[in-house]
Design a protein that fits this description.
Subunit structure: Homodimer.
Bound molecules: adenosine-5'-triphosphate, magnesium ion
Structural class: mainly alpha
Function: Catalyzes the attachment of tryptophan to tRNA(Trp).
Family: Belongs to the class-I aminoacyl-tRNA synthetase family.
CATH topology of the largest domain: Rossmann fold
Main location: cytoplasm
GO biological process, one term: tryptophanyl-tRNA aminoacylation
Helix content: 40-55%
CATH architecture of the largest domain: 3-Layer(aba) Sandwich
Length: 332
């Protein structure tokens, strides 16, 4: 039976990229009847330094972001990773299955470790093995993510395959990445070749879900573009990363397509398109940030939701971990 798992790091505030690439899609897919498990991956967040008080706050705010985006804790399991120890337990076994060479090829490792790899944390290097454990400890079959996580999901399949081969079992499923829609890779507003990220040092590079209308309008007005008006056909965006990004965002917010947006906006200059985009973004995001702020007034309620979700998650993970221990020969 299909089972969905996905995670988001409480490594900062949520961005429009997280919303369009993840949260909105999670909320939209809730009626499919498939069991969905969504995790605030706090153990992944700490692979780069996090101030403890900020990490706790970001975890609660992330949970508020899920709910405000329309993910219903009565229908989906919502919890934070560190409350379900089975993730870390399975990750250790996967650390012993995965190879150093596989990890070294990961572009996220290279991007985040930067030039000084010797000084990056061991956790950042091992990140994809923990991510494989997050998914496989539930025998999840489908993982909706943004384009940037495709390589990690291929590694998850490699880990599952190698485990099954090494131990001569058909135990872990081979997971399907689900990367769909107009905005699976929202780019930085300052640089059309870099993805929008909550951990980018420049706040002008991203739209935060908690930004107010003025901040959103300013960031879109100042977003880097070229001087040409919008083309009327999608091919006209091929060599124009920044223009393409803004059109993709518009299409995703509107639930339409790039073709439909260009049919309406083709020929218009950015001085006309940008205010329209800002208006659309504000209209969609303002109710979400309002609801997040409301939910954040009661942190104890958020903690109760996460605790309850963790219990539900553990009930699925425990027997899968127990079976894994049997397979590898760990005596209990
Ligand atoms: P960080 O910079 O700390 O890595 P992030 O913004 O990349 O933060 P993650 O927690 O790493 O966010 O990713 C959460 C989910 O959001 C993943 O499914 C990821 O693919 C998706 N995602 C992240 N950035 C984007 C983006 N720019 N466009 C579309 N989806 C994105
Ligand atoms: Mg990321």
């Amino acid at each position: 039976t299909p089972r969905v798992f996905s995670g988001i790091q409480p490594s900062g505030g949520l961005t429009l990229g997280n919303y369009l690439g993840a949260l909105k899609r999670f909320a939209d897919s809730q009626n499919s009847g498939v069991q969905s498990i969504y995790c605030m991956v706090d153990m992944h967040a700490m692979t780069v330094w996090q101030d403890p008080a900020k990490l706790a706050r970001a975890t609660r705010e992330l949970c508020a972001g899920f709910i405000a985006s329309g993910v219903d804790p009565d229908r989906s399991i919502l919890f934070n990773q560190s409350q379900v120890a089975e993730h870390a337990q399975l990750a250790w076994i996967f650390n012993c299955v995965a190879r150093m060479g596989w990890m070294k090829r990961m572009t996220q490792w290279k991007d985040k470790a930067g030039k000084n790899q010797e000084n990056a944390s061991l956790g950042l290097f091992a990140y994809p093995a923990l991510m494989a454990a997050d998914i496989l400890v539930y025998h999840a079959t489908h993982v909706p993510v943004g384009e940037d996580q495709k390589q990690h999901l291929e590694l998850t399949r490699d880990i599952a395959t190698k485990f099954n081969n090494d131990f001569g079992v058909e135990f872990f499923p081979i997971t399907e990445p689900v990367i769909e829609g107009a905005a699976t890779r929202v780019m930085s507003l300052r640089d059309g070749t870099k993805k929008m990220s909550k951990s980018d040092p420049s706040d002008m590079s991203r739209i935060n879900l908690t930004d107010d209308a003025d901040a959103i309008a300013t960031k879109i007005r100042k977003a880097r573009t070229d001087p040409e008006p919008l083309p009327s056909e999608a091919d006209g965006l091929a060599e124009r990363a920044e223009a393409r990004n803004l059109v993709n965002i518009y299409a995703a917010l509107e639930n339409s397509s790039v073709e439909a947006v260009l049919a309406e906006m083709g020929g218009k200059p950015f001085s006309e398109f940008k205010p329209r985009l800002a208006e659309l973004a504000v209209a969609q995001l303002a109710p979400i940030s309002g609801e997040m702020a409301r939910l954040m007034q009661d942190p104890a309620e958020i903690d109760a939701i996460l605790r309850h979700g963790a219990e539900q998650a553990r009930a699925i993970a425990q027997p899968i971990l127990a079976r894994t221990y049997d397979i590898v020969g760990m005596v209990r």
